[in-house]
Amino acid sequence: MSFDLLTTVETGGCSAKIPPRQLEELLKDLPLPVDPRILVDISTHDDAGVYKVNDEIALVLTTDFFPPLVSDGYEFGLIAATNTISDIYAMGATPLVALNIMMFPSARIPMEVYREILRGGNDKAKEAGVSIIGGHTIDDYPPKYGLAVIGTVHPEKVITNAGVREGDELILTKPLGTGIILAGHRLKMTTPGQLEGAVKLMKQLNAAGATLMKKYSIRGATDITGFGLAGHALKMARASGVTIELDMKSIPLLDGTYTLAEQGCIPGAAFRNLDYTEREIRFTDGLDYSLRMIAHDAQTSGGLLMAVAPEKSGEILRELHSAGHPEAAVIGKAVTREEAPLILG
């Protein structure tokens, strides 16, 4: 039975997040737990929490779920699982087990769609070596799906968004543009190939990038999702005490992204992300409006942004290109902290 999940939502994927400024305001007064075994908490707004079990093992815990961003239930499940597991990869950890999180309106959508969403999530988890061992469902509209994932990492090898050092180069492993392409699809402004390219990208695990981060002992990274490249780079700069300079003309883009932005196809989430960054960002003279907004486009299941020593960047790029990330590129660098923690040029 065919059912178009996009008929249930106005916005889906990571574009459905609460605006980052509002979320930060909400969280700032919540007391943080005091426990020496907690290695990473919400104070740096990192991709996952980390809890030290012993001298050899730390648990890495994350959860993510969202409304549909594609029509097909199976593809929705694949993308949602890929997106959640990415948080574990971004911390340098190995994902192990997961729980399903599902909100589904059993009286309004055929239950076959429910089954297909779960099948997609399970297939992607198996690809990542993750066992889904349970879950929870409530009856809710519109549908939402995701995972809670647990992985492991050595306590001294955790990769965080606070690990960027002055002089590091920033490598982005996937092109930007998923939010804009998905919005363009809903407005019938994209070609089938452009949508296919975005969907294929969102289904691609960040496993290869995670493996290389471990191989080259990288300590600073994040994955690019709902707060856009600019929002996540700003969080990295703050946490690391550096200024990050990004060269927008070096950033890989999905086919059609720039043209759609020029035509005014800029999702609302990009403006909410800009509202979050604009007090701490400096745009260089000559940077056009479309590139500014692409930097704030909310990504779903985006790439890793990793901070690497300049002498290693060429070799890491070559390995990324041969491992299924042909558009991976050096897009910026970290410098001594200036007044603005993030500079887009």
Characterize this entry briefly.
By secondary structure, the protein is an alpha+beta fold. It has helices spanning 20-27, 73-90, 111-127, 178-186, 192-202, 207-215, 228-240, 257-262, 268-277, 289-294, 310-322, and strands at residues 38-40, 49-52, 58-66, 94-103, 131-138, 144-153, 169-172, 220-223, 242-246, 281-283, 304-308, 329-336, 342-344.
Plain-language structure description:
The protein is α+β, with helices and mostly antiparallel strands. It has 2 domains: 5-157, 2-Layer Sandwich (60s Ribosomal Protein L30, Chain: A); 169-344, Alpha-Beta Complex (Phosphoribosyl-aminoimidazole Synthetase, Chain A, domain 2). Helices cover 35% and strands 22% of the residues. The protein is built from 11 helices and 13 strands. It has helices at 20-27, 73-90, 111-127, 178-186, 192-202, 207-215, 228-240, 257-262, 268-277, 289-294, 310-322, and strands at residues 38-40, 49-52, 58-66, 94-103, 131-138, 144-153, 169-172, 220-223, 242-246, 281-283, 304-308, 329-336, 342-344. It has a 7-stranded mixed sheet with strand order 8-11-7-12-9-13-10, with helices on both faces. α2 (73-90) runs parallel beside α3 and α4 (178-186) packs across α5. 51% of the residues are buried. The model has no long low-confidence stretch (mean pLDDT 96).
